[in-house]
Amino acid sequence: MKSKKGSWSVIRQFFSKVIRSLMASPPEIEGLFTPIQSPLPIIRPVDNWPAMLNIHAAHASQCFVEEVVHYKHTQGKQHEFLRFKVSHPVKPWKAFVFADRTVNMDDEDGEPSLSNKAAMLSSPAPSSSSSSSTHSSCVLPAHDTIYAATASSEALARLHVTFFKDPHGTVRTLTFDTENSRPSVLELASLLRVTSHHAPSYTACKNQCYWFADTVYEALRQLFPDHRQSPDSRRNATYRGIGIPMANSVGDVCVAYHEERAGILARANEERERYEAVRTSLVRSASERQEAREEGREEGRAEERAALERERVEERAALERERVEERAALERERAAFAAREQGLVRVIEELAAQSRNAAAN
User: Fold this and answer.
1) What is the mean pLDDT of each run of 10 residues along the chain (361 residues)?
2) Among 145, 141, 114, 148, which Cα is nearest to 35's?
3) Quick check: 198 and 249 in contact, CB under 8 A?
4) How does DSSP assign 131-143, residue by residue?
5) What is the pTM (predicted TM-score) of this model?
């Protein structure tokens, strides 16, 4: 029987890989979608996630959260975490994002790793006999992290192994049916970030994984009220059936979220104004350069016209000089001819006089 189950699992994995290989590439949005055949999910501290998404902010702003599921492990540390289903406008692409709070146990390079998931996930509440000093000693750096992968990818399969290998149950589900009612993935990133900043330390008595999951979930309910919720059995924030104390921070987190989004909007407006100022300056510069070129061309044409006019004047002057010289030469020829004519007349008169003298003698 086990052999048949193992064979069927191998066959199913084989066909799953074939189907993945035939699928087109998912959208290129940093921090959300992973290549279908890559086994590596996206793992980032929630504080860095918004900046990563902003690399492709125009595309990320079109991705919306369809569903939020609050999960709880039913054995061991009874860790609680959230899973978000995110849709992309180009169907059928979807991504899944997990978010949780653990004790801060970084790798050598300071980044979270899946191997750390086996470490301390949450702590049960101290006994009623514990003193306040014991409570205050449970403060550790919190590690608030997101894990993202494309639906039907090998990376998502790896995340499922990580988060669902232990027995678990669904505490409650939040569904946003229409696109207008859904938070964008950028808004989700802002909410996770301000929640983490509100209580950056992990305390077993009030700011543990139960607090993080509950605060984010309840804040989404208040900030985006057009939703459906599955029956809430209120099994969250319990350890072996015993209620765990946690801070009530939803109102403060919602205020911080609005301030965060207002700041982002103000920065976006400032960036847009700077862009418009630069664009206007560039357009003005281009226009001025064009006008200068036009003026230069006009000046060039004026210079060409002036040069042509000078050439015409010089040509007319040269022609006039030639005519004057021709007239002067003609006058000289006429004077020379008149002089020759007068000389000839004198010669004739002299010959006539000689003839008369000869006849008289």
Assistant:
1) 54 53 74 93 96 92 95 90 94 93 63 43 39 50 96 95 92 90 95 96 89 95 91 59 69 95 89 86 86 82 88 90 88 86 86 85 75
2) 148
3) yes
4) -HHHHHTTEEEEE
5) 0.66
